[in-house]
Amino acid sequence: MKLIVLNLPRDLSEQSLALLFEKFGDITSCNLIIDKYTGISKGFGFVEMTLDHEGEIAIKELHGTKIGKNKIRVKQSTEQL
Fold first, then answer.
1. What are the pLDDT digits (tens) for 19-36?
2. CATH of 2-76, one of 3.40.50.300, 3.30.70.330, 2.60.40.1930, 3.40.50.620
3. What distance in Å separates the CA atoms of residue 22 and residue 49, rounded to the nearest whole number?
């Protein structure tokens, strides 16, 4: 299941994002979206979890939680490849 994570702190690393989700299951990929001109995070990213039910648990547990001063949003991604 591919998840989109919104309203992340701009200084959060991909490794920190992955660690946040690893406690809910296996992660296939984790990508922060970086501004190509500044090299700074745009404040959102994608996490792909191996099993759908693990993704659903991650959504339930992480949506609305705070990282630093930011209240993050986690939902299933509708991005088409």
1. 999 999 999 999 999 999
2. 3.30.70.330
3. 9
